Amino acid sequence: MAEGSRNNVGEAMHYTLHLTNDCNMACRYCYVDHDNVMYMDIETAKKAVDIAAEGSSSPTGIIFFGGEPLLCKDVIYETIEYCRWKEAHSDCMFYYKVTTNGLLLDEGFMEMSMKENIFIALSHDGVEESHNLHRLDAGGKGTFEALTGKIDMLLSKRPYAPVLMVVNPDTAGYYSDSVEYLYGKGFRYIICSMNYAANWTEEDMDILKKQYEKLSRFYFERTLKEEKFYLSPFEVKISSHINGDTYHHERCELGRKQISVAPDGSLFPCVQFVGDKTYRIGHIDTGIDRRRQMELFNLNEEEKDTCTDCAVRNRCNHYCGCMNRQATGSIGRVSPVQCAHERLLLPIADKLAERLFRKKSGLFIQKHYNEMFPLLSLIEDKTSDNKKQ
How confident is the model at residue 304 (pLDDT cuts 50, 70, 90)? Predict the structure, then answer.
């Protein structure tokens, strides 16, 4: 199928609207091109919603992304209003998420998030010494202090909001302390990502290993105390350990489950590709080019030469085209840093899982062996929240 094709019926999709490449921060590891500042207008956003709505029988995610998406609150509000109109006049359903640096969070937006059920993910790099090394405002000042009150406001309204933390070579030594700090602030969904594009040394990896060992003890203790929380990458690697060769649900399906919409309406298979015409898969005015979409998907699915004989390739993130492009410039080439990280992390995660299993931890067994756990956990949390109120 050529350009002009729409959604495959029944596919659950996310459409990430890159509202702007502008930002009120100047993070040192940011991959977004800020040279030519662009903003998405509401007509472009509406056309993206139209594409998302066509032929979809499953709820579709509309994700507001940047740069910093809260620079475009009016477009967010108008887009959601249009989504509601679409739901009333066609057979579609939407849900919403925004990923923000948090500086522009205010009571008005929090009220809107509660009214429209907007899922909010906050980017934060942990303890002050770690966070302020890279997450700076436009004037070059660390933003840790400015976010303290924002965190309290966010979690008071949305206690299950996730926090996204980036680990760099110069912040690796703070990794465990940062996770414990964010946990102490009240976050229960902590998603940690490596900056594979950075210059990691063997010494840095040794530090990282010690931090993972320390974190495994923290995870072990919290889990034995039946304190529910999600800590990536441990959760992902434990799942791959338990499910073995059947482990597939975390695998990247480039362009199949997520489409990124650039401010000018161009379509791309994921967030890292926005702006690179080589990976363009359509436009909001002409639809998704299914042929190009599948070409990139199939290219990403091909086994990498460096991974063919690897013993852990079925448990590794080397299929993530977005990650590969960020680190190496190619979806078909895996960063040596990623290989080193996977081999370092997996034995620690496996040992952690085995210890918790031997201890017959109820929370651990429910979380990783009961497919109904997410639903049961949600019901339990909602019941607990209602009792508190």
Answer: confident
